[in-house]
């Protein structure tokens, strides 16, 4: 299994690169969580459109990105698009691919929460003269987001964990640096256990923050 002193020595030598990779992971996970939520809200809003064609297209979008494995989407963009003359950086591919994927899931969560709302609120707002956009912004959206906090939290956790696949398209995030560490000394168990503990710590932080937010904004029964 190799000696711990040699592992710690290699770890200390590569620590600047590993920390840089960790920052890249946190940056990517944070940005795709924000962009995925914002786009997900737009997609969710369009699912409420009175236009049947728009609803059909949006539902097809949700089904497509939920049904397609994320790694396939990233490979299509990174390795497939250059054959059509479109070359994107690993970060750009990861950001765009993750955003479209995450938005589809978030829209589905929001739509599920919407289906559980008391629709008499919307009817009352319509009777008061609110237009569809005002009803969405002031009545529908705040409630569905609050109801979806647990699901959205799970999605953020998934974003953090799924970001590890970005190393397969040459994005130098945390797991890519751990791979390099493991390849240096062939102490794969120690390197991957280190990665697991770091991911566990980050997930624990997200859970604690989410629980505080949920307690703060919970909708009373």
UniProtKB/TrEMBL annotation:
Topology relative to the membrane: Multi-pass membrane protein
UniProt KW keywords: Amino-acid transport, Cell membrane, Membrane, Transmembrane, Transmembrane helix, Transport
InterPro entries attached to this UniProt entry: AA_ABC_transptr_permease_3TM, ArtM/GltK/GlnP/TcyL/YhdX-like, MetI-like, MetI-like_sf
Entry keyword annotation includes Ribonucleoprotein: no
Species this chain originates from: Polynucleobacter victoriensis
Gene3D superfamilies reported in the protein's UniProt record: MetI-like
Domain of life: Bacteria
UniProt protein name: Polar amino acid transport system permease protein
Main location as per UniProt: membrane
Keyword GTP-binding: no
Family, similarity comment: Belongs to the binding-protein-dependent transport system permease family. HisMQ subfamily.
One function term, GO molecular function aspect: L-cystine transmembrane transporter activity
NCBIfam families attached to this UniProt entry: HEQRo_perm_3TM (TIGR01726)
CDD domains listed in its UniProt record: TM_PBP2 (cd06261)
Residue ranges constituting the ABC transmembrane type-1 domain according to the UniProt record: 22-210
Annotated TM spans: 20-46, 58-79, 91-110, 191-213
Compartments reported by the entry: Cell inner membrane; Cell membrane
Cited SUPFAM superfamilies: MetI-like
